[in-house]
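Repro:
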Amino acid sequence: MTISPREVPRVLSIAGTDPSGGAGLQADLKSIAAAGGYGMGVVTALVAQNTCGVRSVHTPPLEFLRDQLAAVTDDVAIDAVKIGMLGDPEITAVVHDWLVETKPPVVVLDPVMVATSGDRLLSADAEEAMRELVVTTGEVADIGVITPNIPELAVLVKESPVETIEEAVKQGEQLLESTKAAVLVKGGHLSNQTLTDYLLRHDHEPEHFLHPLVDTKNTHGTGCSLSAGLATRIAQSGDVVKASQLSIDWLYGAILHADLLEVGKGHGPVFHGWETAPCCQ
């Protein structure tokens, strides 16, 4: 499928928050801006978190979520949507219905399901709702991409997490069979000196992207940042392969320069603005 590329795409992030700025909606808006888009945000959950972990989560009423979505949709033409943290089946259902009604041309779904610690973040009902949203993303969008990490990919296909990128690609191919969307298999959770990501699409050979491992603890928000940047770049070019390569290259630079930020006592954020910062030139 094709879309009408737009030089400065209007990109909506539907996600939870991070007051420390490294992940969630805050990271999405930085990523969209870094990619050259105009970012908008609909909040699914207010998360009290920092680089050391999550303290609490407040979920606004569903009607407020509907009002936020309607406020944007009624006023602004949306070129791309990035979906992040949803949290429960009810929130997922609201977003699902909005996608079916609105049919945005580009949707990138980052299925936030497993914490960095390995803990499952969603109930069984919420996990099933997420699987349904994966299918819906492929049906409603002209270009849809699912971007699970290794643990999330395993949950989506109802298997155990794998240890090699080859096994991850096999799980990605299983997920691909359930949706018309593309699947970006991310190898960042695997213990390798070379990071490999695979883009899987229907009727195409897999595309792979290679980068050396960066020795840093500061990788907070990588999944959020990549998916938001990817949505923006797809809307700019209409080319999923080109957008994936550019987004992964950009994220590599953001990780490479992350230590310059000196933000937080735990796993700090990546440097979203590294391409234009004087210290990185």
